[in-house]
Design goal:
By secondary structure, the chain is of the alpha/beta class. The protein has one domain: 3-Layer(aba) Sandwich (Rossmann fold), CATH 3.40.50.1010. The protein has 7 helices and 4 strands, in the order E-H-H-E-H-H-E-H-H-E-H. It has a 4-stranded parallel sheet. Helix 1 crosses helix 2, helix 3 packs antiparallel against helix 4 and helix 5 packs across helix 6. The longest helix has 14 residues. The chain is globular. The two termini are 16 Å apart.
């Protein structure tokens, strides 16, 4: 099965959050997919953690290296559709990319983001429950 996995779920795994074992178990035999922007979102989240003194630069490098080793299919998105989704739900393009990919591919979404879950449900996108 292919699963579109968002930044919140990826970070939960990379940062060893409590939901990590469940996410790893659910995705173990699946093909993961995400928009190309996820690399920049991960890097942005890591720099935010630096600013809050929650991780060191060495830890950030290790997390990014781990992320880059995850085999995932990178999807291109239709920007017009993404803009429409962003406008419709008043969300950033980064979140709209995931909705757009799920709608285009028909694959389910794995997210820990409550608002993104609600939007996915409104768009009749299947969710992978954690």
């Amino acid at each position: 099965m292919e699963i579109i996995i968002d930044t919140s779920a990826i970070l939960a795994v990379l940062l060893n959050e409590p939901s990590r074992p469940k996410i790893v178990s659910i995705t173990q035999n699946s093909v993961l997919g995400a928009p190309g922007s996820v690399k920049w979102e991960i890097a942005n989240a890591l720099t935010a953690l630096f600013k809050r003194n929650r991780i060191s630069i060495e830890e950030g490098h290790a997390v990014m290296k781990s992320f880059l080793s995850i085999p995932a299919r990178e999807y291109q998105v239709d920007f017009e559709t993404t803009l429409d989704v962003g406008n419709k739900y008043n969300i950033y393009a980064y979140d709209a990319f995931f909705i757009t990919i799920c709608k285009t591919t028909g694959f389910p979404l794995l997210t820990l983001d409550k608002k993104l879950k609600q939007i996915a449900e409104m768009e009749n996108i299947k969710l992978v429950e954690i």
